[in-house]
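Final report, results section. Input specification for complex C-07:
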Amino acid sequence: MELFNTLSRKKEKFKALKEGTVTMYTCGPTVYNYAHIGNLRTFIFYDIVKRAFELDGYKVKQVMNITDVDDKTIKSAAERRMSLKEYTDIYTKYFMDDLEKLNVEKNIKFTKATENIDKMQLIIKKLLKTGYAYEADDGIYYKVSAFEAYGRLSGMTVDGKYSRIKGDEYDKESATDFALWKYWDAKDGEVYWDGELKKGRPGWHIECSAMAIKHLAKTIDVHCGGVDLMFPHHENEIAQSEAYTGEKFVNYWVHCEHLLVNNQKMSKSLGNFYTLKDLEGRGFDPLSFRLMVLDNNYRNRLDFTFDNLKKYEGLLKKIDLSMKSLEKTERYTEKDNELSKQQVNETVKRLIEEFKAAVNNDFNTHSALVAFFALLDLSDSRVEKGRIDSSEYKVLKGGIDKMQSFLGVYKDYEIPREITQMADEREKFRESKKFTEADILRDKIKENGYFIADLKKGYVIAKKYLES
Ligand SMILES: [Zn+2]
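Structure output:
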């Protein structure tokens, strides 16, 4: 496995701290609103990184934070006269729904900021004691000048002049001392913790350091995030964690690039700010977005357009039909034709190797998809004959399942009984050459959101996809 490490700015061969396992921390959502598709690109990318390590034989321990306390969540909850928990629970649920729809595997340790306050307080106390933090009127701050390696990840040059930042919205241009703990004030209402520190609440950056160390280890293998988090968030995570433990925090930093819409940055004022609900509202299958993300290298900006997304709906349709046709085609056992069987065997083997090599080459899912579609083409060409040799079926099915279980771009769905009944009836009409009646039923099925594709023998039903 080779991956591009932001820390060295080079593609490196991956070496796990502990053989056979990968510890992986992934920055999660702030649950004050719906996630936009730029965030979702990053969350799909995390899923790919994890599945890639699993495909390569590793056991992966992934932790993701849910930021359920910060300036934005407190403000939004107060505006709606809800408690912080009531409010953030709503958007946590929506976030989980989005992951489900996008086929993101849930074998992740999700942990909320508010469940880890004790660890944050412990870290802050030690940083105070060792001179990495200091107290001001309104809270406890991290002293950036005390951490010599500051700026190493992002390449930020630190000029030695530091101002102090109170809010969670940071100046992207300069290094600043940032809040570790914010003392309570009236606008925080009921939101505060005391105990080890004076009544208050944590800053945003300390959350990730505490959760990574508490739930994984002092030093972890991989830390992923969107490229916008590199500075100052990840830089601050390193400064806090390494000052606290005295050890290297992360071996491999992996960053996913931005998503643009029509080549512009997404923003509410431009009206190009989309959530998964918006895509679904326009009739798109969430997995078309997953497929789009996989087809574009994570280190490149992804330019999202609805026209482009239609192309991926078309590809979903191909996947759906190919898989169903293979399943539906009559199988038989052929004694001869060893040459043909051997050819199929070898081609599938080669495609699987190409697939794995692509994934192991810095998560090149675009090339992996090329191998996947080549395999589907091969399957289609065997199915076209109307029946398929059982051993060929097995080899093809095995290869497709293997690739698909990594890609996660297909989810089986139920077809309503009235649709399957209509399709059966239509088939009977066709058999008795009553084509007009058959066509009427075919159109009726279409009106109901499904369609029939005829095979040489028999047919398959699939749902309708949006296509360009
Ligand atoms: Zn983080």
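Residues 131 and 146 are 7 Å apart (CA to CA). The mean pLDDT is 94. This concludes the modelling results for the funded period.
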